[in-house]
Amino acid sequence: MDYFYAFLIGGIMCVIGQILIDTTKLTAPRVLVIFVVAGAILTAFGWYEPIVKLAKNGATVPLPGFGYALAKGAMDGAKDGFMAAISGGLKNTAAGLTAAIGFGYIVALIFTPKSKR
Amino acid sequence: MSKKQQKQQPQQAQQQQSKKPNKEVTKQYEQYVKQFTPKPKYFSNSLKAFVVGGCICAAALYIQNLLMDKGLSEKTAGAYVTVILVCTAQLLTGFGVFDTIGKFAGAGVFVPITGFANSMVAPAMEYKKEGPVLGVGAKLFSLAGAVLVCGITVSAIIGMIYYFIK
Amino acid sequence: MKNKIGKQTLQFSSMPRIIGAHALVGEKEGKGPMAKWFDTILEEDTYGEKTWEKSESKMLKQSLLLALQQSGLDKDKIDIILSGDLINQIMSSSYMARDLAIPFLGVYGACSTMTESMTLGSIMIDGGYATNILVGASSHYCTAERQFRLPLEHGNHRPPSAQWTATASGGMVLSANDKGDKAVKHGKEVKELYISHATIGKIIDTGIKDANQMGAAMAPAAVDTIIRHLSDTGRSPDFYDIILTGDLGHIGKDIAIDLLSGAGLQVSNNYDDCGVLLFDKKQDTHSGGSGCGCSACIFSGYIYKEMRLGKIKNALLISTGALLSTISSQQGESIPGIAHAVAVTTEGVS
Fold this sequence. Notes:
Number of domains of chain C: 2
Order of helices and strands of chain A: HHHHHH
Strand content of chain C: 15-25%
Oligomer: heterotrimer
CATH superfamily of the largest domain in chain C: Stage V sporulation protein AD
């Protein structure tokens, strides 16, 4: 059943993204920003947590999940003081970000783009 | 879309279709253009996005379960899953496969964290010849930077609000 | 003014000739329906260079040099090169001209560059300021895409109205009309091509802001220039065997036909668009080709050869340009469209 919900919720988020791209003139980077910020704000209101409980990776893997991780880190940090509140978001996502930056840098140095057919 | 005044336009030619680009005419012309523009295939695009996106999430859950069976905590396993997805997407981008998948699946690979990973590597690769510092180094964030800046700022604001409320 | 008729049309009384042309296209374009008209088809879009910009510059250089070779002229007989492209500060053209060491004037008209340089070249020849002029234009999918849109390997969806920047370049040799010597090719007499008129278009801005709606942004400019040309010269659309716009694509072409018929001009039989011709629908370019090279390679490939063979007698070529910059589109400015027309004929004055 976990897999079903992960598939369903993850799929629905992608459909929302697809509809945003198809029906509006929003460019891809804007859609990414909207998703992350929306995820963070929903988390702040406590509305994203239930989705994560239900769908697990179906809610954490799509980009709102990135916003969720950022906001959740900040909210957890807020319990330990002001500094932890500010740094909590990055701390919670540090592994993923470091991998994305470090590995991305290496990949970009090795490969060259190809012309599309 | 109609928020600005338009370019100045010299006196009109006599023919009827010449346009003074003021807001109203622009709007009319956009309507007029719409009838010539084919619609995107909403349903099939969405279906592809749904299936591919769903599969990525289900696969992520599978990996997570596998790692947790090996004794990792949920949080560590989650981080591993993110790292695995990011690195896979970046490698696929490097091999030049990701854009082909993206053309098929659209938001299906774009909305999951894979899309974020792709939007970091793609511009960086493109600017390789401009050098490892100002080329690759700087362009790594030319698209993803906006996501990071907005996301981190919002998270800091949320953190502060929570701190002061509590 | 004896050389200007009507409001915007120039008449070249000496009728400069086109004595050589060369069309060079990339791999994808070489698989399209027009493949048989192109002189050179690249096996690989890098053309053996390390950067896309260098590839484009080399493409432009090759097409100009091979056009020159075809004309049978020597390099030092060329007075001026006029060429342009899409890349920042027309980089491809400047580096091409650096290597050739011929006086050079860079022109920028976005995708309208080909007819812009043909027009300027004809003016110089007609005015007696030059005898032989090389004109050219180029574009490359990989250089244009990263400058105007998103990176190549970015996994984004292209909307149905998007157009595909052609990896192509075209070069022509314009020459003063010294009459007398008949053009001969493979021992057979072929037709001479003369440039009789040029109509310089004005910018028409319809307020379109979407960089994926180029065809719609440029169509009104093309239509304006066509109507202006016909009324200035007193010709009807039937006078031309073919009226060919540069890169309106499928959407822009439909709009242009509709606008023209709204103005009472029926053109559907002899009207076509280079962007539509260049790619097959199956090649998944959505609304067709675009870029300077699009009209450049069709004019100097298809049109030039058909006219040489006498199959087309009168052609009206309209390159259409969207004069946007990366900055203007980021700042939310609308796209200014422009179109210049050149009338080419095989029936010269004698």
